[in-house]
Amino acid sequence: MHAWEIMSKPVVHVTMSTPVREATAALVDHGFAAMPVVNRENRVVGIFTEADALRCGSGFNGVVADFMTSPVEVVYMDADVDHVARQMLGDRLRCVPVVEDGVLVGVVSRRDLLRRLISSDDSIAGRLRSVLTDYSGSGERWNVRVADGVALISGQFEDEAERRVIALLARTVAGVERAELLNQAPA
């Protein structure tokens, strides 16, 4: 697998002349730990991180060029994902800009790397568990497994009305096509 297959795009980025306050707001608003800094030709010249923003202090005075981390490590679109993961772990990087001919085309984050390790059914099951925990107040009442969009939910149900509610709640989760309620733990 290659970087271009898992990278996030389009890329939220800033320029060296972006005010620190604006760049920090972008980090917070998008939930990013870091984002690339580019020049006029859209070439990566640095990275602006949460740590860089914290170094600015509460005044947030200045521009990104005054606080960004530079030089920055980049990877090419055809970089092997396992190599990218080792690079990120070894250098304790939260994200790595992806370039083509030196121009920013994407970003590989830790989350992008983790996404490839789980199936979409795993993600759906996690969201469904969260919905059921919100409903019941306990994450241990039902066991959940999802296979090809079919949610298998087992555990103790108060009555038939609760079974119907649980089945309806399950179908509100994106990706659940059908819900099956079982009296024993799914295999």
TrEMBL record:
Statement: the UniProt record of this protein carries the keyword Cell cycle: no
Family annotation (SUPFAM superfamilies): CBS-domain pair
Limits of the BON domain: 120-187
Name of protein: CBS domain-containing protein
Organism of derivation: Amycolatopsis pithecellobii
Annotated keywords: CBS domain
InterPro entries xref list: BON_dom, CBS_dom, CBS_dom_sf, Diverse_CBS-Domain
CBS domain: residues covered: 7-67, 68-123
Record bears the keyword Electron transport: no
Top-rank taxon: Bacteria
One of the Pfam families matching this protein, by short name: CBS
